[in-house]
Design goal:
Number of strands of chain B: 5
Strand order of the largest sheet of chain B: 1-2-5
Order of helices and strands of chain A: EHEEHEEEEH
Helix content of chain B: 25-40%
Order of helices and strands of chain B: EHEEHHEHE
Shape of chain A: elongated
Oligomer: heterodimer
Number of helices of chain A: 3
Mean pLDDT of chain A: 91
Strand content of chain A: 15-25%
Number of helices of chain B: 4
Structural class of chain A: mainly beta
Low-confidence stretches of chain A: none
Low-confidence stretches of chain B: 151-155
Largest sheet of chain B: 3 strands, parallel
Radius of gyration of chain B: 18 Å
Strand order of the largest sheet of chain A: 5-6-7
Largest sheet of chain A: 3 strands, antiparallel
Largest interface: A-B, 52 and 53 residues
Structural class of chain B: alpha/beta
Radius of gyration of chain A: 24 Å
Bound molecules: flavin-adenine dinucleotide, iron/sulfur cluster
Number of strands of chain A: 7
């Protein structure tokens, strides 16, 4: 369904406003608390829920299979590299899940392109992408086929 | 309504939309065009923008050429059958031959991939899909677009 905000927990910091891909988390001008201004455009992506430092955002379940009394809570910890979910069912059953979100210290293994060697003109003219052909882990070159071997279809 | 001010910028490469494709294209463009002015414009925050916002739990397409699992030709044949012939085979082939090196980069950057402990192969849940713990798929790729590229003064990532 969509997100809603527990007004007593929200301090109006705006993290949810910054992260929402749909731009539907806004700060109410009168009460200075966050609210979902367009609940039917919510993807339930949980980006705002994870970003809220006060755990003030929750997601309403669909009335047909989660009528009341359930809850889905989440905590994303970048330093630990984990995401933890606590799922409560209506009958009281709870399930906890913890999964890794990264295997390496955050951002440390991403190459700084500006520091690497510049590609030469021959490489620029080739059909390779960055790290190819070595990055394919195969013997030899990037596979190629002659253009005329493709089926002549509706687009040709 | 907030007032909007028009901002003019000239550039060599303009990437419109910083979803998975846009952030990847921005990173790749910087590698090949070191001195170019590259602008990626995104309407939301690239850490979560686009269809990967919630995280993904599979990479829907991986050839596994290094283990002889599939070749690009196999993927073209599959896509042609699946879509009853209505495909651009050249584009399908091109995507398929490059996907493995891209996936290997994500692995290197820290995306948690599920692997068979004995063989080291990525675990599959179908002929084409491999399984991942992908909650942070987009933040990891966005980090690449930012750290690999944003430290250069001639790249602009526009947030709303
Ligand atoms: C729920 C869901 C689950 C999925 N699960 C999987 C999976 O497990 N495995 C898998 O491989 N694939 C999965 N997919 C598919 C995959 O996520 C998408 O194919 C992929 O993310 C598409 O990337 P893209 O960059 O082409 O488009 P998008 O990610 O849609 O990126 C488009 C970008 O453009 C921006 N934009 C749009 N209009 C403008 C504008 N006017 N100005 C500026 N910016 C703009 C948007 O904000 C967005 O960031 C899933 C998709 C969904 C929706
Ligand atoms: S769940 Fe996603 S789409 Fe819905 S309000 Fe939160 S960030 Fe926006
Ligand atoms: S992130 Fe949480 S505390 Fe901050 S404005 Fe949004 S709901 Fe309120």
């Amino acid at each position: 369904m969509s997100t809603f905000v527990y007004m007593t927990r929200c301090d109006g910091c705006g993290h949810c406003v910054d992260i929402c891909p749909s731009d539907i988390m806004h700060i109410d001008e009168n009460i200075r608390r966050a609210k979902n201004i367009e609940p039917n455009f919510c993807w339930e992506c949980y980006s705002c829920v994870k970003a809220c430092p006060n755990h003030a955002i929750d997601v309403r379940g669909y009335a047909d299979f989660a009528p009341m009394g359930h809850s889905v809570r989440v905590r994303r910890e970048e330093e630990k590299g984990t995401i933890s979910w606590k799922i409560k069912f209506r009958n009281g059953t709870t399930k906890d899940f913890v999964s890794p979100i990264t295997t390496k210290p955050w951002g440390k293994f991403i190459p700084k392109l500006a520091d690497g060697d510049k590609p030469n003109q021959g490489e620029i003219n080739s059909q390779r992408l960055y790290t190819e052909p070595e990055g394919l882990n195969i013997d030899g070159e990037l596979p190629v086929v002659p253009k005329d071997s493709f089926k002549k279809g509706v687009y040709y | 309504m907030a007032k909007h001010k028009t901002h003019y910028e000239d550039c060599d490469v303009l990437v419109v939309g910083g979803g998975m494709a846009g952030t990847g294209a921005t990173f790749e463009a910087r590698h090949w065009g070191r001195d170019m002015k590259i602008i990626c414009v995104e309407k939301a925050n690239i850490d979560r923008s686009g269809a990967v916002a919630q995280g993904l739990y599979a990479i829907n397409c991986y050839m596994g050429m290094q283990w002889g699992e599939n070749q690009p030709e196999d993927h073209v044949r599959y896509a042609r059958n699946d879509l009853m012939g209505m495909v651009r085979e050249d584009l399908g082939y091109d995507m398929a031959r490059h996907v493995d090196s891209t996936v290997h980069m994500f692995d290197e950057w820290g995306l948690p991939m599920m692997k068979n402990e004995e063989t080291g192969r990525y675990l599959r849940e179908g002929k084409w899909q491999i399984m991942i713990h992908g909650e942070s798929y987009k933040p990891i790729v966005a980090e690449a677009a930012k750290t690999g590229v944003l430290d250069r003064s001639n790249l602009l990532l526009m947030k709303k």
